[in-house]
Amino acid sequence: MRAMRAEAFSGYEGLKLVELPKPAIADGKVLVRMTAAGVTPLDHTILSGKFHGSKAPLILGNEGAGMVEEGGGADFPADSRVMFFGAYGAFEDGTYSEWVAVRKEDLCLIPDNVDDVSAAGIPVAYLTAQVALTLAGFQAGKTVLAPAIGGSIGNAVTQLTRALGARNAISSTTNHAKAEQAKALGFNEVIDTSLEKLGDGVRRITGGYGADIVIDGIGGDVLSEALGALALEGRLITLGYSASRKATIDVTNLIVPQASMRGLNMFAQPKAAITDAWKVIVSLLKSGAIKPIVAKTFPLVETVDALRYLIEGRPFGRVVLTI
Question: For position 26, what pLDDT does the model report?
């Protein structure tokens, strides 16, 4: 089978197309013939040698969609369309491959109204978003800020909270063109930080109230500014660092509103949390209340171009490999 494997964690040049045996299934795993794989910033972080625990050679990709070929049993019979996320592509071979042996508990059936390309970009973004919202105590009527509307987390959090009855589902962008694109797609509470500061935008939208919840997948200065936008007893969940791993915070932004801040590592979440998140996501997918946005697809052999487009092009929506 064909796979895109990091022979070394040396940047783009370390990623090579290789021919490997089809994986054998054992220990209750399910053989999935891949049709599409999501491309994420984590893939680039690993390829650049900046992620703890990964070891080369390694097939990248920790989410994707495909068809069950063998081992799914009654829950996932042969030819079932499935999507999944897990330690694949980080601590074991991943989804940039024609076949993957997947743990059965990681699989989720793809709703009939969702195509495989869209499904491939659902697991990481929407599972992370829903788990984070649950940890933050989200309920209908809350105000939520998720910076970076064009990115996977910003988009997923905004869609989920809007569908689940948020008072305000706020996001942001540093790019005026993206702000206009977001509005055209129906995202009406997007702060254009080329025109106003993030905190000022949140206070404008909320009439001075602030955000009950911030889900931050950016880090750096964005985290610092978002912390200052929290409402009384607000909660900030930090889970990414595409802008920077380092941030300087004003501790009074925690002390004065009696706010709280915590991190989220999706690889460390209990299975029950993932199962509960899938239930919410699948229901909303079936109803059409949420809809993943795909910016561009690339064939498997153009994985390097796909990663470069994601990291350097910063598109609005997901980048997906077709396999």
Answer: 86
